Amino acid sequence: MDDREVDRRVVVAGAGVLALGAVAACGSYGAPSSPATSGAGGSSGGSSSGGSSSGGNTLAKTSDIPVGGGKVFASQQVVVTQPVASTFKAFSAICTHQGCTVGGVSGGTINCPCHGSKFKIADGAVAKGPAEQPLPPKTVTVRGDSIILG
Fold first, then answer.
1. To bridge 33 with a disulfide, which of 44, 53, 101, 109 should be the other Cys (CB 3.0-4.6 Å)?
2. Which whole-number Å values give the CA distances from 21 to 16, 17, 28, 50, in the listed order?
3. Which helix (H) or strand (E) holds 19?
4. CA–CA gap between residue 30 and residue 94 (Å, rounded)
5. How far is CA 32 from the centre of its chain?
6. Are residues 117 and 95 in contact, defined by beta-carbon separation less than 8 angstroms?
7. CA 143, chain centre distance (Å)
8. How many CB atoms lie within 10 A of CB 88?
C-alpha cells in the first residue's frame, strides 16, 4: 500500500506542475492577458464611440488620472499616467518581459503582476526588471477634460 500512496502523490504533484505550466503559458509574449487583470475600473474603461472629429477613443476624464499615478485600460492595451500636474503620458499596457498586461500604477511606477517588472510613469523606462525594454509610448490627446487615444 505504501507504494500506491507514493505513486498517487507523484501523480498529484505532476498534475499540479502541469496546471502551473498551463497558467504560465497564458502570459506568452504578444498575447493579451485577461481583462480581469487590468486594474481598470468600470465606467471610464474606454468608449469605442469616441465622440470626437479625430475618430479617437475617449479613455477617461483628466480627473480620473491621479497626479503621480495612472490607470490601465486593458481592452485598449494602454496605460495613461500623469507624472506631474496637467502632463499626461500613455504607454503600451503590454509588459515587454513576457507580454502580460500590466496590473496597475502605484508608487510612481507601472507594475506588472506576472514577474514584478516596474516601469517609470514619466517615460515608460524600466525601473525594475526582469523586463529590459521600456514600455512603448502611445499617443493620447487632451481635449477639454477628456483624454483621447490616438
1. 101
2. 9, 6, 11, 40
3. helix 2-25
4. 8
5. 9
6. yes
7. 24
8. 18
Chain-centre distance of CA 53, in angstroms? 28
Write out the three cell numbers for 63: 480627473
CB 135 within 8 A of CB 124: yes
Please tell me the predicted confidence (pLDDT) of residue 150: 86
Say how far apart CA 87 and CA 80 lie, in whole Å.
Answer: 10
Residue 76 CB: number of other CB atoms within 10 A?
20
What does each of the 150 residues of the chain score in pLDDT, given as a tens digit? 555 555 555 444 444 444 444 334 333 333 333 333 333 333 333 333 333 344 568 999 999 999 999 999 999 999 999 999 999 999 999 999 999 999 999 999 999 999 999 999 999 999 999 999 999 999 999 999 999 998
Q: Phi and psi of 71, rounded to 5°?
A: -150, 140
C-alpha cell at 33: 492577458
CA diameter of the chain: 75
| Dihedral angle sign, alpha carbons of residues 32, 37, 43, 45 | negative
Give me the sheet containing 104-106, strands edge to edge: 104-106, 109-111, 118-120, 126-128
